[in-house]
Amino acid sequence: MSTDGNKKQFWKRNAAKVPGSIQHVYGAQHPPFDPLLHANLIKAGNKPPPTTPGKPKKATTFQEFESITSDAWDVGDDDDELLAMAAQNLNIEVVMETANKVMQRHFNLKLTSPVSFASQSSPYTDGRLVKSHSEAPIGSPKDELRKLSWSGIPRQVRPITWKLLSGYLPANAERRESVLKRKRHEYFGFIQQYYDSRNDEHHQDTYRQIHIDIPRMTPESLVLQPKVTEIFERILFIWAIRHPASGYVQGINDLVTPFFVVYVFEYIEEEVENFDVSSLQEEALRNIEADSFWCMSKLLDGIQDNYTFAQPGIQKKVKALEELVSRIDETVHRHMQHYEVEYLQFAFRWMNNLLMRELPLRCTIRLWDTYQAEPEGFSHFHLYVCAAFLVRWRKEILEEKDFQGLMLLLQNLPTMHWGNEEVSVLLAEAYRLKFAFADAPNHYKR
Q1: Which residues form a coiled coil (predicted)?
Q2: In CA terms, which of 41, 71, 138, 444 is 20 to 30 Å from 229?
């Protein structure tokens, strides 16, 4: 692909913060769960009684604080507990119904891309799910939970499933209650010791920016509730001081919302956007806050380079998106080139906010079901989702005949009425792209 070296660089290196290290997220590939292949593997189990948690050590200095704030996660033993929970909580009929809807819709669509992927490896063949050649061996409980979750998680079991998929809860049921209590106590220990430092001179700018950014978030009916605003401010500030090399970066604030909303689901039946969060008991609010903090932290561990100086992780992903789109739909790519639309001008936000500003919250939550079930979902699979998302608007893009029209379209895509069906089709297309380009250059896989 040819590039124009004379074009001005859109993103300038003017960030004031210097970020920290990068940690990887978990590893082997796990395609969508195939209920037809795996139904006989589901078995039930009993939950042993919980154990008593330990109390976190209290730090007396910032240096001691840094030395004890390891984000080590209590990964579970390789037992049958996750598989049993998957059988009990993720209804197979729900999974199959979702998968059938995806396939029916998917195969009714005509491929608009000039590249045919019919011969490529895909989870969808002949109207049914099939096992991918790269699928992990059958038998791992963690793999089974991911496969069950890939096609969407029922609302009533989404909170515990997200905690398990993120690594916040261990697989071993005997340790779950003690881990939750310990991590929650640890988080509020940070609040007690360090939240007052938001008024210190060297933290004022960080806190001020967080305070400014939160009211700009959506849905406004939720985040503008005083109790919710306070919770978000604490979560973001504590995360920032726990990562002093990067600090707070705009965009991180949006990543709290899906976790917060899903964990509120544990306590209410109505929609969160229209619910008065302050009516919840204090203990419930504390649990939601701590759980949201730890799970957001785990997500950010896998995409830390998105928020380092000049945000190189995002720049690499945007460049990879441009190259990927040039291969899957050269017409769209050349159309944007012709009108001098730089991918960084619209896709930076797609990577920085994980499409949260492009999709309704309900769609983001459904998308994150798959991201958490897909290894490296937020850091790797998201690239293919963005490519599928862009090509989804092929007709509308080609109808625009100037720079201004293209930018207005790409920054305001009409997804207001999207639901689970549209997201499921998007994910199916992204999955096809992932395996069609399994042998693509390494930068697609970063």
Answers
A1: none
A2: 71
